[in-house]
Amino acid sequence: MSLIIIGSVAFDAIETPFGKTDKIVGGAATYAGLAASYFYKDVKIVGVVGDDFTQGNIDILNNHGIDTEGLQVKQGEKSFFWSGKYHNDMNSRDTLITELNVLADFDPVIPESYQDCEYLMLGNLTPQVQQTVIKRLKNRPKLIVMDTMNFWMDIAMDDLLETIKMVDVLTINDEEARQLSGEYSLMKAATKILTMGPKYLIIKKGEHGALLFHQDQVFSTPALPLAEVFDPTGAGDTFAGGFIGYMAKVGTINFNNMKNAIIFGSALASFCVEKFGTERILNLTDAQIEERIKEFVKLSSFTI
Fold first, then answer.
1. Are the CB atoms for 43 and 3 separated by under 8 Å?
2. What letter does residue 207 receive in the DSSP assignment?
């Protein structure tokens, strides 16, 4: 049974206080797919690129065992491109260039071989595209996780609310949670958002960790303190990929497993920020991931 990840597969150009890159492979589905592949071996991607995205670029995914049959290659067109510059605090950035290109009229195609989907990660795309993917699957997946952003809250709130009703887990950051709910307190925001449809809510707080909500249960995980953060791009998508990859691995959906999944997702995200783009998460070992998980356990383990 497969794990499908839908999202952008793209090129990024990034500048931070630690340096800058030319065009490198990025995109939400790329980061999430790579992260998920460390925990689950049947990861499939739905996305679209132009013919400037070479076979060598696609092999970055294939070499991790990721199925790219659902990745459309549009001849004569260009891939989505984003360029950004991070400020010294690394929490804020300026978008320099956004070129939607093939993503502007993306119509997701679900190959027949993808119809065994049990786990679905809806990366940050238009709510309409996210809905289309769900509707084009013959059977509802066992677990649907959705990521979104404040941009869609600004321009497509009705579609967004309709999509949120269709998913099991919603993952957003603290600013987006406040905007979606109209509540400043994250506890009140979570209570309100959970009435919109999802059974679980993850609120990401960047360098301050993440919160998991389900009914009257709350779990908080810290972020790993790092001496240097080279590039935060893709960290949230890496977190989401690690989260759903772990959930697919364990196969049982409950609050306790989701608590563990948040730790595993956070661990992958902590690797991601240590280098530019996907460089750090391309060749991790099981031992490195296990050691990083232990560091997270130490952060929040104590005896009274």
1. yes
2. G
* DSSP secondary structure letter of residue 162: H
Long-range Cβ pairs for the range 290-293 (8 Å, 24+): 292/224, 292/267, 293/263, 293/264, 293/267
- CA 88/CA 139 separation, integer angstroms: 47
Token pair for 132: 């289309």
Decide: 231 and 273 in contact? Cβ < 8 Å.
yes
- β-sheet bridge partners, residue 72: 48
Mean pLDDT per block of 10 residues along the chain (304 residues) reads: 96 93 96 98 98 97 98 98 89 89 96 97 96 97 96 96 98 96 98 98 92 97 87 95 98 98 96 95 97 92 84
Q: Find all residues with CB under 8 Å of 215, minimum gap 6, and list them.
A: 194
Contacts of 239 by beta carbon, 8 Å cutoff, 6+ apart:
35, 171, 204, 210, 265, 266, 268, 269
280: Cβ contacts below 8 Å, ≥ 6 apart: 271, 272, 273, 274
Question: Which of 24, 46, 238, 75 is closest to 10 using CA atoms?
Answer: 24
Domains of the chain (ranges, CATH numbers) = 2-300 (3.40.1190.20)
Enter the pTM of the model: 0.96
CA proximity to 276, closest of 8, 6, 2, 19: 19
Closest to 141 in 3D by CA, of 285, 56, 251:
251
Q: How far apart are CA 56 and CA 13, in angstroms?
A: 18
Q: Which amino acid is at 206?
A: G
Count of residues making up the chain: 304
